Amino acid sequence: MNQIKLFSGSSTRYLSELISDHFGHPLADYTLSKFSDGEMRPIFNESVRGTHTFLIQSTFAPAENLLELLLMIDCAKRASADYIAAVIPYFGYARQDRKDKPRVPISAKVIADMLVAAGAHRIMTMDFHADQLQGFFNIPVDHIQSDAIFIPYLQENVDLSSAVFASPDVGGVKRARKYAMYFDKDLVICDKYRKVANKVEKITVIGDVKDRDVILVDDLVDTAGTMCRAADELIKQGAKSVRAICTHAVLSGKAYENIEASQMLELIVTDTIPLRAKSSKIKVESVSKLFCHAMRNTYENRSLSALFLD
Which of 32, 63, 146, 201 has the largest count of CB atoms under 10 Å? Predict the structure, then answer.
């Protein structure tokens, strides 16, 4: 079996070190040098010839994180790595997965093509904005599900006797329904209306939440506008409490202020993206152990299905 190498991009070092600790394998020596004008030049300071190489880097903003990963892939390819797996805990641009109006790009497809063209043999990521993004690639994609993290958290930390699961928008119904079916609970939908991106005009609650503990389920939280408006509307409709589970903590703009000012009890996220600030309402669960298991199973040619909850 080929030797294994784990490399971390500069933006995901905090997570890569945790993955490395669980793996029991040190991160390989890597330097990101820059020219005076800001151009990046990744350098592997040890041989990768003939190795099974994992490159760990989330592609959240700024776009330099994506560019660094693409250059790392090319670096590994030109250094004769035998197999290159791009481990992307948060896959940026995934929300732009279709033409929702004339004359706009399908950015997620562009990113997929770039990763393949750079030389990746495999993509490993968590909770695409839409499952069909896997079809944008002509190489294997390991699409890891965060329910393996959130379901145990809910079982251990939350009283689910009067719980109901909710989707903050119509597009996330499938995701919320999965939790509702797993716990044999009711499902509620928050139908939102927007005139422009990142600004919710109106939310309508479909379903009964009176005297219920509502758990909102989403794949990412950006400005937190939708999540907080949904939480406030659910409380207005008679919910006892509202908490949310959300994989990717993008948390841009006034997200932290919105969360603190909302009636949401807590927001549970993962560390696919590092938090920019602390909040008494935000709790972080690590994906490091789950990614470690997925990477090890891939390296050892074992199934990943055991890591997923039905």
Answer: 146
